[in-house]
Amino acid sequence: MEELTEQKCVACRVGAPSVTLEERKELQPQVPEWQIITEDGIPKLDRSFKFKNFKDAISFTAEVGAAAEEEGHHPRLTTEWGKVAVTWWTHKIKNLHKNDFIMAAKTDAIYKKYVQT
């Protein structure tokens, strides 16, 4: 199976199928630090990342933003001193799509650069 970090997001449209429960069971172990939360009835992938300082938090936020722009799939990012919260879901279908798991894996890969000091 191809690593999620190597996959590309596909264009999503209203009515596109969300991931099934079986697909979630297959995908979630590939992003084990992410929690599936529900907000306003919408399932979302959520994770907080810790940093030594604000400069690293801002830099990480910018890198995640650049990756999101490249893939055409955008998260909610909340940046504070020493912490960035990232939440992925597919707005058009108000649910989780494989794109969300792909981007969660790519976000984890970006973070690895910050914890290897």
Give a structural overview.
With 117 residues, the protein is of the alpha+beta class. The protein has one domain (19-115): Transcriptional coactivator/pterin dehydratase (Gyrase A, domain 2, 2-Layer Sandwich), CATH 3.30.1360.20. It is built from 3 helices and 4 strands. The protein has helices at 21-27, 54-71, 98-115, and strands spanning 35-39, 42-50, 76-80, 83-88. β3 and β4 (83-88) form a beta hairpin. The radius of gyration is 14 Å and the shape is globular.
- Tell me, briefly, the overall form: globular
Measured on Cα atoms, how large is the radius of gyration? 14 Å
Going by CATH, the homologous superfamily would be: Transcriptional coactivator/pterin dehydratase
Number of domains: 1
Q: Give me the count of strands.
A: 4
Instruction: Output the strand order for the largest sheet.
Output: 1-2-4-3
Percent range for β-strand residues: 15-25%
Average pLDDT for all residues: 94
Classification by helices and strands: alpha+beta
The level of helicity is 25-40%
- Main sheet attributes: strand count, strand direction, barrel closure: 4 strands, antiparallel
| Total helical elements | 3
Low-confidence region ranges: none
- Order of H and E elements: HEEHEEH
Q: Distance between termini?
A: 31 Å
CATH architecture: 2-Layer Sandwich
What is the CATH level 1 assignment? Alpha Beta
What CATH calls the topology is: Gyrase A, domain 2
